[in-house]
Amino acid sequence: MEWIGVIRHGESLGNVAREVAESGGHEVIDIPERDADVPLSPAGVDQGRALGRWFAEMPREQWPDVVVASPYRRTIDTAALALRGHPRMLVDERLRDRELGVLDLLTTHGVAARYPEELIRKRRLGKFYHRPPGGESWADVTLRLRSLMRDLEGRRVLLFAHEITHFLLRYLLEHLPEKDLLAYAHNSLVPNGALTSWRRDGDLWVLEEEFQVDQLREHGAEPTETEDATIRST
C-alpha cells in the first residue's frame, strides 16, 4: 500500500439517540435495533450523498483501489452512497465497532449507576485493556485491525468504519504509545463523514489528513460531531 484512509460512517439514528439520552441524564439509550442494524439518520444520508458527489468529481486515478466496509448497516450504507458501483467494495467483520457486552445501550450515567464495579476495574486496568463482561477492550479491537491490515491488498485502500478505527489506526500505523493514544482520543472527536488518511514514506506511515470534513461542506452537507458510546462512556 502507498495510501490508506478511513471515513467514519454518516450520522446514525443511534448517534442521535445517544445524544438525547446523555443530555437528558437517562441511563439507557433508546435504540430498538441491535447495534449492527442501526440505520443512518437523514443527516447521515446527506453526508453519504455529499461524499458521493465528492468522489464523482475526483479523477478515477485518485479513487481507492479497494474499499472495505464494516459489516454494520450505517457503514455499508455510507460506503454505498459514497462509492456506488466501485469494482472492489468488500465487507469485513474485523472492521466492526467495539462490542460493549453488558454495557451496551448504557449512557455514562447508566454505567455508573448499574455497573460501578466496572468503573473500578477500568481505573485499575486502564481504558485500553478494560474488557466489559461479554464485550471487547480497545486491545481486542486493535488485534482485529492488525489482522485486517495484514490481509489488505491494493495501492490505495479506503476503509468505512467507526470513530474508534480512526484512533486505533494511529496507534498501529504511527506506533503511538498507549498513554498518548488515550490522551489523543480523550481530546478528539471524529465528525461523521470525516476522512483520516496516511501516506507511506519509506518504511513509515505519515499522517496526511486528520478528521477532514471540507468534502462534506463543499458538496452540500454539514458534518455532525456526535460522540460514540464505544469511546466516551466505557
Key phrases:
single chain, 234 residues, Rossmann fold, 15% strand, six-stranded mixed β-sheet, 10 helices, 6 strands, alpha/beta
Describe the structure.
This protein has 234 residues and is an alpha/beta fold. It has one domain: Phosphoglycerate mutase-like (Rossmann fold, 3-Layer(aba) Sandwich). It has ten helices and six strands. The chain has a six-stranded mixed β-sheet. Helix 3 links the parallel strand 2 and strand 3. The protein is globular, with a radius of gyration of 17 Å. The mean pLDDT is 96. Keywords: Glycolysis, Isomerase. It holds the Pfam family His_Phos_1. InterPro entries: His_Pase_superF_clade-1, His_PPase_superfam, PG/BPGM_mutase_AS, Phosphogly_mut1. It is an enzyme of class 5 (isomerase). Its EC number is 5.4.2.11.
For the record, the CATH class is Alpha Beta
Give the full name of the CATH homologous superfamily: Phosphoglycerate mutase-like
Strand order of the largest sheet: 3-2-4-1-5-6
Largest sheet: 6 strands, mixed
Taken in chain order, the helices and strands follow as EHHEHEHHHEHHEEHH
Name the poorly predicted regions. none
Quote the distance from N terminus to C terminus.
33 Å
For the record, the count of structural domains works out to 1
Keywords: Glycolysis, Isomerase
Enzyme class: isomerase
EC number: 5.4.2.11
Protein name: phosphoglycerate mutase (2,3-diphosphoglycerate-dependent)
